């Protein structure tokens, strides 16, 4: 689905979303238990990220996928812009009414540990939000932080969320510079009026600042936020492919620089201890080439509600998508509904 790539390149797709997990896999495989604890300890934990509602009121895992694991991942850049502290890594993840995540993704690791599914949910998707009526899905994060967003996604998809993670786009800016930039191909000219930046067709090695502008653009793209979703996934795919190439034990100083940047770019819920992160990462060793699928939830219609532009998802194929993700059967869904929502090899 991504064209002809070497097994090494395709394996790196998993790293695009599981950056911290891949980091620990590298360390664990080398027997560096001190390093595992050191870098896992640098990963910021988000207190109270998981819902407190009774387990009986949350979706149950299907028996055939009892050992699967699903993360809800969000991407933020407002966190680092908050004036509460001079250190972006310590800035609050969430302040009531201040932030609406521009990236919402489900990362599903199958029960056999051999496959991973990444499903993006557009931020303007109109859904019921517990206690608030219906609104755009990213409003759940603004009103109630990670717990309310998890409740909303669970109610909307019927998929049990095991853990929560936050991607700090400004942190990934530093990581991009740490690995010497990433290669991005831009197939079409565009102009971003919000950032006053022209993008010209070609292949470029982007530094952190340029890459951050790339993932932030939505104005000037034909499909707005939908194109931005593809750009963000494309950036992560390219960044972590480059990062994996930098993780060499023959260059301890370069390794330390990259791992330090990776661990500071991702935050996870406080239920993931250092040992849990290590064990999870070690359990991913069977996820190999061609076993990771990127997909966007299929679009239904663009709508206007009380003056707000929003969208719905395809009422026919979306419920089947959630069911097949939760039961480790995404290939069956793509066989039935096609591959038009999969991340293409070339992104605007």
CATH domain class: Alpha Beta
Main beta sheet, described? 7 strands, mixed
Rg computed from alpha carbons, rounded to a whole number of angstroms? 19 Å
Total tally of structural domains: 1
Describe the protein's architecture and organization:
This protein is of the alpha+beta class and 348 residues long. The chain is globular and about 50 Å long. The chain has eleven helices and 15 strands. The strands form five sheets. The protein has a seven-stranded mixed β-sheet, sandwiched between helices. It has a single domain (7-337), classed as LCP protein (Aminopeptidase). It has helices at residues 7-17, 19-29, 33-42, 139-157, 169-178, 208-216, 225-246, 252-265, 274-282, 317-326, 330-337, and strands at residues 44-46, 69-76, 103-109, 116-120, 126-129, 133-136, 163-168, 182-186, 190-192, 197-199, 202-206, 266-269, 292-296, 299-305, 308-313. It starts with 6 loop residues before the first helix and ends in an 11-residue tail after the last helix. β5 (126-129) and β6 (133-136) form a beta hairpin.
